[in-house]
């Protein structure tokens, strides 16, 4: 650790990266940040938009050995990263130009709008509402950036071995864990909701990714994770401006628990803009609010911070394996290679999932739900058949893949943050976005094998 006042150095921010100045005088130069070798990034993921005054900050190192700025209260001000990590290759044209510079060779947007093919149908499905009585996994709290006096990690420190059953106690910061989750999500190996926390879903995703690629991913090697993230499409967090359409909805005031009351609603829509946006960007709703403190998400034109999960995974899935013990679904191609993996809630002791192999019979988008107590279960005091309207907050979410065993299916959920941490009434429950992605890669006749 050393003090800026004694070093005669000052790190320029928004438009500079790192800058050495002779003497201890405060100064600021106007730089083109896109030509800088390094940049200072705030804890929120932005380029630092001011030059710290001499004496306001100290220069130190975090646990990963990176240069950081810390104020006199011990708060992280900025972290120095390579400039190319902030401006990924997909933002450059054929001649290396960056956004805002005309480039006749600029390629088309690699992330087209997501849509559905015309052969996906809707239907009304009898099914059971997944139970949510089981507690959430206990996840470790965020590991903050190291302070000025924390020692640097040893160069020969062994990499952690990751297994699905043993949670990793990560040395990464909250934003670095977010980067890990976003990278896995982009690879088609879903960590569930992106919330900046380590847990079983992230563990399982790391192991599945290693099985898919044959590579090793150290969940504590921030430099490696950030480089992989850069190559997969750039920074994990981006700015997004709320549109009039986002704010318009349609929304419902609340979602009742009683099925009879659900049946009276025109649709089981989102309850707010923030809930809708959290699902769109694969985020935990609480984490989206944390990244945007004090923001009113209902106002069009408001710029917020969201994660960038990237494009949907594509491929032709020939076989699905639902692992009950791992609470994870694996999708394989015709050649036997792993295409995607998703955390899942699969059955319970009272209402177990099927055993053996079944097949997908049909695919439904935005399905309604037929509640029949004689076929499904007893919900409250409801003894009659009820037609529950469709919507993301419906009992089966936005997708239904009907299985050849009656009343069983693979479907979405109104509570994505509980996926993989609670049990269902026998079906395979995924987040709405994971169920949608999987539905795009399957067709009727694909086998689903249940294993312990």
Task: Give me some keywords for this one.
452 residues, alpha+beta, L,D-transpeptidase catalytic domain-like, five-stranded antiparallel beta sheet, 21 strands, LD_TPept_cat_dom, LD-transpeptidase
How would you describe this structure to a colleague?
The protein is globular, with a radius of gyration of 24 Å. 18% of the residues lie in helices and 21% in strands. It is built from 10 helices and 21 strands. The protein starts with a strand and ends with a strand. The strands form 5 sheets. Strands 13-12-11-21-15-18-19-20-14 form a 9-stranded mixed β-sheet, with helices on both faces. The chain has helices spanning 4-7, 83-86, 174-186, 200-213, 222-232, 244-248, 259-262, 273-280, 285-291, 432-441, and strands spanning 2-3, 9-10, 19-20, 38-41, 57-61, 67-71, 76-82, 124-126, 237-241, 303-307, 317-323, 328-333, 338-343, 345-346, 356-365, 368-371, 386-388, 399-403, 409-411, 428-429, 447-451. Among the domains are: 2-86, no CATH class; 124-136 and 314-451, L,D-transpeptidase catalytic domain-like (Beta Barrel). The protein is α+β, with helices and mostly antiparallel strands. Helix 3 crosses helix 5 (222-232). The active site is at residues 411, 427.
């Amino acid at each position: 650790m050393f003090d800026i006042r004694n070093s005669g150095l000052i790190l320029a921010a928004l438009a500079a990266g790192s800058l050495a100045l002779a003497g201890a005088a405060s100064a600021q130069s106007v730089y083109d940040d896109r030509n800088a070798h390094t940049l200072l990034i705030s804890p929120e993921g932005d380029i630092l938009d001011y030059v710290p005054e001499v004496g306001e900050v100290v220069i130190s190192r975090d646990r990963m050995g990176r240069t950081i700025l810390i104020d006199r209260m011990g708060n992280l001000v900025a972290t120095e990263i390579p400039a190319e990590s902030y401006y990924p290759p997909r933002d450059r044209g054929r001649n290396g130009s960056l956004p805002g510079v005309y480039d006749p060779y600029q390629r088309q947007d690699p992330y087209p709008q997501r849509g559905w093919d015309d052969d996906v149908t809707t239907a009304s499905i009898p099914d059971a509402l997944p139970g949510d009585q089981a507690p959430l996994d206990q996840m470790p709290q965020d590991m903050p950036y190291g302070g000025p006096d924390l020692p640097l990690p040893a160069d020969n420190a062994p990499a952690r071995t990751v297994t699905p059953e043993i949670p990793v106690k990560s040395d990464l910061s909250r934003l670095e864990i977010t980067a890990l989750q976003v990278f896995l999500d982009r690879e088609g190996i879903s960590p569930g909701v992106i919330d900046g926390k380590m847990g079983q879903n992230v563990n399982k995703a790391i192991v599945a990714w290693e099985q898919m690629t044959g590579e090793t991913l150290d969940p504590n090697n921030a430099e490696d994770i950030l480089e992989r993230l850069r190559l997969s499409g750039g920074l994990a967090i981006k700015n997004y401006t709320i549109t009039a359409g986002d704010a318009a909805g349609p929304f419902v005031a609340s979602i009742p628990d009683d099925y009879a009351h659900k049946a009276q609603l025109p649709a089981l829509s989102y309850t707010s803009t923030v809930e809708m946006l959290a699902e769109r960007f694969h985020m935990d709703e609480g984490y989206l609010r944390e990244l945007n403190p004090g923001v009113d998400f209902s106002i069009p034109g408001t710029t917020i911070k969201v994660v960038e999960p990237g494009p949907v995974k594509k491929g032709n899935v020939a076989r699905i394996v639902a692992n009950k013990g791992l609470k994870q679904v694996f999708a394989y191609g015709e050649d036997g290679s792993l295409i995607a993996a998703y955390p899942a809630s699969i059955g319970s002791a009272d209402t177990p999932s099927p055993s053996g192999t079944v097949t997908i019979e049909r695919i439904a988008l935005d399905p309604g739900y037929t509640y029949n107590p004689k076929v499904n279960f007893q919900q409250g005091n409801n003894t009659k058949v009820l037609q529950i309207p469709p919507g993301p907050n419906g009992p089966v979410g936005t997708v239904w893949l009907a299985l050849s065993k009656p009343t069983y299916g693979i479907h979405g959920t109104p509570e994505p943050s509980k996926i993989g941490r609670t049990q269902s009434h026998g079906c395979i429950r995924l987040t709405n976005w994971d169920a949608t992605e999987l539905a795009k890669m399957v067709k009727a006749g694909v086998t689903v094998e249940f294993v312990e």
